[in-house]
Every structure is written in structure tokens, then in C-alpha cells.
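Q: Give me the 3D complex with pyridoxal-5'-phosphate.
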Amino acid sequence: MTKIRITKKTMDIIKRDRNVMFTTTREHYPFVAKSGRGDFAYDAEGNKFIDFSSFISIYNFGVNGNAAIRNAIKKQVDELMHSAFTDYYAELPVEFAENLVKMMPKGFGRVFLSNSGTEANEDAIKLSRLFTRKSYIMGFFNAFHGRSIGALGLTSTKIAQRERFGPFPNVVHAVYPNPYRCEFGTDNAEDCANASIDYIERNIFQRTYSAKEIAAIFIEPVQGEGGYIVPPVKFMRELRKLATDNGILLVSDEVQSGYMRTGKFLAMEHFGVTADIYTMAKAIGGGLPLGATIAKKELGDTPPGSHAGTFGGNLAVIAAANTSLKYVMKNRRKIESTVKKNGRKIMKRLEQMKDSYEIVGDVRGIGMMTALELVKDKENKVPAVKEREAVLEECFYNGLIALPAGESTIRIIPPITIGENNLDRGLNILEDAIKKVNGQGKSRVD
Ligand SMILES: Cc1ncc(COP(=O)(O)O)c(C=O)c1O
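A: Here is the predicted complex, encoded as C-alpha cells.
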């Protein structure tokens, strides 16, 4: 992989972006996306990068989808792009919903289609209020559920995302058990899980918000934007019990963790827990914007006219999504074993990095939803924020794009289909960058 060259061409596009676009979340290296195929992304200069980001968990089966997905979109665009699915019927979205339901646990049978993750969660908030006739929604600190007002009420990763946007509707937050940084001061994952459940029962149900008023508990099975945090299995099972015992719906936000990323269609499957509602987006659209809210059939029906959205079920989008989903259905076992194999390989290398470098504090993940957290030193675990930026930048200039999460975490989420050689090459670039920033070489933060 040759060294990356950035010229005035890139810097001019970035300047124009800053001049005209509203807010930005782009604070990192200057990657200007131009094209992509399989394991690789290319920038506006023609530089070639191995992709360890799947473009924020979208391209689970290769950058820019595969030929079947692209052809399905082209064919559909020629026939009819938009069918006004909220007012007229169309077969394709119905077939897609039927397929989606087949991938769900038994008993699921209602699908609402939208355009994004935040919308899928917004829809789930509304549905849970409708079904339970209760108004409060519970979420977790350090969660990310989107940026529209309802979903943003649940989101609590960074103050910049919420500051000056409130008030938010009837939301309460509980403590997500983070085994590496347990808020309750224990290093024992099980104790951390128990303390989190206890917090909900004592500080929320008994002191602030009655369970009788809480419609739903929203949870990411693995916290994504918050830093790829995997909670103890026991916690998720206890939470399920708590929800059931109190007549509260459990909503699993699978926007980032779902769609085979962890090796299962739903990340919640790893916990042996079934939620009442699942929300999905990102990869489910096969590269195009799609959100889906999938509920248990027993929850009931929504009154006609009570909820809709113009673009939900857009035919071009669903052509991509259905083609991708059919690929997943046909190759489910193969994908599962690929994720297991690649996930093991990634974790083994990350563990080695943790053993070798002081700044790698924790490595974690399920399947191919993996990450490493950088710290100033292993003992005090102070987040190595600047160092994380330096590692990402070093990776970029050596031909690897990866994304941050949480305060000082780097997510490692290549396309599931990445070739073994490219996975090794990407991990080598990552390790070289860490080595450099760790002090065994020259670093860009120096
Ligand atoms: C778990 C989770 N939920 C919801 C969202 C919001 O999705 P979108 O950006 O499509 O609105 C995200 C986005 O990162 C996410 O990771």
C-alpha cells in the first residue's frame, strides 16, 4: 500500500464544505470519498484505502454493495422509484417486510419502514406509547439512538449533541454496565450488572419514575457510538425480566449492531434475550437510506392514519434492501462462520496489541463489531483522546480508514466479506500506528 498523498484538491473541497454545510461531525483526517469496491475505498485524489469502517456500518458486504444490489437499484429506478407507499400499495416493500419477519424471533409480524435509525427509534417511541398507553421512556447513559428530538432525548453520549436542543419528552436514563469502567466502582462484571439493575429498581422505579408510567426501555445490545461497550449477559437477562415484570416493552436498537455484524442477524441473540420491538437501519438498506421498526404481532394494531412517512418503503431503496436481505437469508450460515473466523482473528491481534502497548487499555466486541480503547496508562485508564486522533490519522496516511467511538475508542468494523490478506494488512497498519503513537516511533501528536 503506497503512502497517501493529499493535495490542494482535497483541501479545497473541505474548505467549500465548511463554507456551505451546516454543522459537521467531521473532525478527523481529510478523507474525501469518491468511489469504492469490496475491501477498498478511494478518495478524490485517487488514493486507495482499506476500509475498516464499512462507512459507519453500512457496507457489511463490501464497499458500495455488490453487483446484485447495484443492478437491482438500476432496474428499479428504470421501472418506478417511488410508489407513495403510505397511500398506494406496492408488492416489493411487502415482500421485504415478509422476509424481514422471517429473520426475527417467533411472534414478530409488524414492520414499519422509514429512512434512518433515528426515525426507526422515533417510530418505536410512538408505537410503545400507543401500545402501552404510558408516556415515559427509559434509556441508558452513554447511549446513541439518533438526533431527532424523541431519539435525542434518549441519546446521551456527548453533551454537544444535546446542549440547547431540549427540552426532551419524558425520558429517564439508567446506568449501562460497562465492565471496563463500571460506574459502581467494581471490576467484577457480574457485580456491575447487579448494581445497574439495582439502580433501576431503587433510584428509578422506587424514587423517581414509577414503572407504571414507563412505556419502554430502549437499549443498544452493544453500545455503538458510546464506545463499543458489551454489557454482561446477566444484565440483559435481568433487564428483560424487569421489563416483563413491570409491563414495560423492551426495545432493542440494532441500528449499528444488527444485520449480521456480530455474527447473528440481531445482536440481542447473543444474550439469549428477545425484545418486544427491534429497530434497524444502516446496513439494512444495502447502501441506501432505510429504517425499520419491527414489533411483536401481539402488541396490536395501529389506528389508520396514526403514523406514516412519505418516503418509507421507497422502491429504489427497498430493491437494494431486499436484494441484500435475500443474500443474507441464503448465506446466513456462511456469513455466521465468516464473522466468527474474522472476529476471532481481529480479537487475537487486538489482544496482542493490548499486551504489547501501554496505550491499549481494553479490547472488546462480539463477532466483527470490535474495538480498542486507548488510555494514557493501563493503571489509571485516563482516556487517551489526542492519541486516539493521532492513531486514526497515522492509519489514514498509511492507507487505512477507521472511525472513532466513545471518548478514546477506535472501532474495527471492516466489511464482513473482507479478504484475509486485506484484513491482515489493515491490522498491520493499525498496529504500526499504535506502536508509533505509543512512543516506539515518531508520532504526529509530538
Ligand atoms: C445504535 C444507533 N441507533 C440510532 C442511530 C441513528 O441512526 P441515523 O444516523 O441513521 O439516524 C445510530 C447511528 O449511529 C446508532 O448507532
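A quick observation: Residues 332-356 form the longest helix (25 residues).
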